[in-house]
Amino acid sequence: xxxxxxxxxxxxxxxVLPPLEAEIMEYMWKVRTATxxxxxxxxxxxxxxxxxxxxxxxxxxxxxxxxxxxRVEKGRGGMRYVYNITTTREEFEQKVVESILDALMNNFxxxxxxxxxxxxx
Amino acid sequence: MLxxxxxxxxxxxxxxxxxIGAITVGVSMTILAFMYVxxxxxxxxxxxxxxxxxxxxWLYDSIVKMANKAGIRIPHVYxxxxxxxxxxxxxxxxVLSVGLFEVLDREEILGVAAHELGHIKxxxxxxxPMVVYGRYLMILLAVMIILFSHxxxxxxxxxxxxxxxxxxxxxxxxxxxxKADETAVRLLDRPLSLKDALEELKYYEDLxxxxxxxALPGIEPSIxxxxxxxxxxxxxxxxxRILRIILESEGINIRNILK
Lengths: 121, 259
Known about the structure:
The complex is a heterodimer. Chain A has helices spanning 19-31, 36-43, 52-64, 89-107, 109-120; strands at 33-35, 68-75, 78-85. By secondary structure, chain A is of the alpha+beta class. In chain A, strand 2 and strand 3 form a beta hairpin. The longest helix of chain A has 19 residues, at 89-107. The model of chain A has no long low-confidence stretch (mean pLDDT 87). In chain B, strands 1-2-4-3 form a four-stranded mixed β-sheet. The relative contact order of chain B is 0.11. At the A-B interface, helix 1, helix 3, strand 2 and strand 3 of A face helix 3, helix 4 and helix 8 of B.
C-alpha cells in the first residue's frame, strides 16, 4: 500500500489511514486472520452504533488498499470471507516512512538532507 | 401490454417496408431468440459455487421448504464470490453472493432467498429476459423506421411506441418486484425478515455509494443521503418495498386472527 496522504495532526497509523480502518488494522495485526463478524464483535463494544455492513465495507476497502486479502471459506453456518493481513505492522510502517522520505527528497532535496544531517548529529 | 406494443411496432415496419420489413423483423427475432438461449445457458461463470445440502444445511433445507410451499421445483442455489451483498434469479436457479452472509443474519438471508423464489414462482425469470430482448427489438425497429422511412407521421408514431414501451417496461419491472416481495412474505415463517434484510441492504448501499471517502469513519453524521429516485429506475425504492412488506405482513396477521 502506498500512502497518498499524511495527516500531521494524527498519531500512529491514523496519520495515513481513516480512524476506523486504522482500528481494524490494529486488531488485524494482532490476530492476523479474522472474519468481518469477529472484527465486528470486537469493535462493537467501543462503537455500539456500528453495524456489520460498516465493518464489511471497511474491510473490503482495506483489501482494495492491499492491506488485507480475503478468501471464501465454507462452513456449515454459511459461506464467509476470511481476511488475512498482507503485511506486518513493521513492514507497513517502513513503507510509510520510505514513501514520505522519497516524496520529500523528490520535492525538497536540500532541505531534507540538511534536516536529516542536523537530527543525525 | 408490452407484447401489444411490440406487435404494433413490428406492424409499422412490415406495412411500410413490406418484404424488407418482414425479413428484418424475422431475422432480428431469430437473432434475439438465439441470444436468449445462449445467455441463459452461459450465465454461470467460474465465480459461482453450487450449494449442496452438506455445505449449509439450514439454508438448503429452508429453501426446499419454501419451494415446496410455493409449489415450484427445488431450485439450484449458487453462491457468488462477491463481497457486495446481492441476489438474483434466472431460470429455476437463485444466486446469493457471499457478501450477503457477511452483513445479514440467517433470517434475513432467508428473506432474500424467499424474494428470489418469489420471482421464480411468478415466472419472472422467464418474462424478464423476454422484456429485455423485446426492448432491443423496439430500439432496432424504431431506428430502422427513423433512418429509412420518409413519412414523418410514421417516425413520430414509432418513437411514441418506443417511449410507451419504456414506460410500460419500467412499471412492469417495479410491479414484479412488489409481487415477488408479496410471495416471499407468504413463504417465510417470519415475514418481516425480508423487511429487516432490505433495511440493512439500504444502509449498506447508502454507506457504500453516498459516503464521502473522508467521512466514512464517522459512520452516521456525515452520510450524504441524496434522493436517488429517477424516472428510469426499474426497481422500486427500498422504502416503497419496506412499506408494502409491512402492510402485506399485517394483512396476513389480521387474516390469521379472523380465521
